[in-house]
Amino acid sequence: MTTEHSPPPGDREPASEQALRELFARVRPRQAPPAADTEEIRAALYAEWDAVTGRRVRFRRFATSAAAAIFVAAGSWLLLDRTPPPAPVTVAQVERVQGRVELDVDGDAVALRSGDSVPQGATIATGTGLVALRLESGGSLRLASRTRMSLQAASAVALEAGAVYFDSEDARTAGEPLTIATSFGSVRDVGTQFIADVEATRLEVGVREGSVTVARDDEQVAADAGEKITLRDGAAASREPLTTFGNDWAWAERLAPPFDIDGRRLIELLEWVAAQTGRTLAFSDPAAERTARETVLTGAIDLEPLPKLEAVLTTTDLSYSIDGDGRILISAK
Questions:
Q1: pTM of the full structure
Q2: I want to staple 143 with a disulfide (CB 3.0 to 4.6 A). Which of 147, 282, 305, 327 is the partner?
């Protein structure tokens, strides 16, 4: 038999708590749900959890992919932005240089050397020097001292001051003919050798071989071999005879392109010298011509045309002389 003792008056619990305690004392344990119901409840709970967390994972993946795409796009932009500019277009190669000649590209001046490339748009200033260029379009373009010229393209130049000599050589029928722009008009090559000389008050064009045309405004003037035309502002073009050899051409002859004699026949050298000096070739007799055509040269020598001819002929049975008409006469020793 159990005896219940009432708590002392100071320790009595509130009536509300006593009521709850008595209520819980009467509650019996609930019966556990069937195992099948437990598994169904667990599966539903996991499904709902996967649905919620899956959306979060997909969202994180989308955010990561978007960030990666932005990074790749930014990287591609940086790569494109850092792509080097296209290489400059080469319009000529330097064949010969005498003295100091400067090449100016975008305000940066450097000294030219043999073998250098000349880019489109560059300006050449010779000062007291001389330079010979091999144009990409063909032909030999040579600049006298005190000349300033810019190369607009392989077949187009602008001559500001000074003199240039052009020999179209084997490019007479290939590519675009050379055009030389000046303040007095444009000089156009028609398969030729000529000099264009610009000063403050006039343009002179002297033709050694072939012909040229000079166009200004609506006027076009032609000059043939052995002629020189002069153009001045506000005046009609004047014309006069021109000797195709001698002092007027000496500076251009000094810049003649190299001619490799090794394995070549003597007649080829003779024809080259005649072309570079503006003279004609003649033989004293058929035997001398036959010797020139049959003789094969060996070795190497790099001199100006006439000194080169003299040096080579010392090794053969022939000699040469130059008469007053500008003929190079070849004869037996």
A1: 0.73
A2: 147
User: Quick check: 269 and 277 in contact, CB under 8 A?
Assistant: no
User: Pick from 201, 193, 316: which is nearest to 248 by CA?
Assistant: 193
Tokens of 69: 């795409």
DSSP assignment of 16-35 equals: HHHHHHHHHHHPPPPPPPPH
Its sign, for the CA torsion 199, 136, 124, 307, is negative
DSSP state of 296: B
Residue 231 DSSP label: E
3-state secondary structure 186-212: EEEECCCEEEEEECCCCEEEEEEECEE
Contacts of 258 (CB under 8 A, 6+ apart): 95, 302
Q: Order the strands of the 280-283 sheet from edge to edge.
A: 280-283, 327-332, 318-322
